[in-house]
Amino acid sequence: MMKKSMRLSLRANEKIYINGAILKVDRKVSFELLNDATFLLESHVIQADQTTTPLRQLYFVVQTMLIEPQNGEIAKAMFDRMLMSTARIFEDRAILAGLEQIDALVEGGRYFEALKQLRLLFVAEAAIIAAEEQAVVPAPEAAHHQFHSQVA
Fold first, then answer.
1. How would you label 104-124 residue by residue, b for 16+ Cβ within 10 Å and e otherwise?
2. Where are the domains of the chain?
3. Strand pairing report for 21-24 and 29-33
4. Which has the least CB within 10 A, 37, 58, 61, 112?
5. Spatial contact of 106 and 79, defined as CB atoms under 8 Å apart
6. How far apart are CA 25 and CA 49, in angstroms?
7. How far apart, in whole angstroms, are the C-alpha atoms of residue 37 and residue 34?
8. For residues 128 and 124, what is the distance between their CA atoms, to the nearest angstrom?
9. What is the pLDDT of residues 18-65, one digit of tens each?
């Protein structure tokens, strides 16, 4: 929710989600929201096929709470379960602290701010996943050397 007016600009054919409704503009437009409204820009919306990591899956659930308020109760129950399982996956203190903050924002109905915080954690999550993948996959030279030492 917002406390003051907010000016937004959209490009031609861009969508915005406002209070559960989807608006699409046919040309570049600027407008001002004069009262409390829950909104999400199309550039911040992720599709189901983009939920390839634990934090992106959590983001998708919070996004659903924001743009489909009629499904809020179901999405909130799913958020609570996913938050617990996601918190068990990570050891990184920054991510765990971020998840606590996101939980408080969601509990307070501040979904937009929760999504913003989740987007900030995507970089740390990507770095952790990349480091884990490097640790699991040996470098080509090491694999080649290991193979030849076993064959010899």
1. ebbeeebbbbbbebbeebeee
2. 1-45, 46-152
3. unpaired
4. 37
5. yes
6. 25
7. 9
8. 6
9. 887 888 999 999 999 888 877 888 888 898 899 999 999 999 999 999
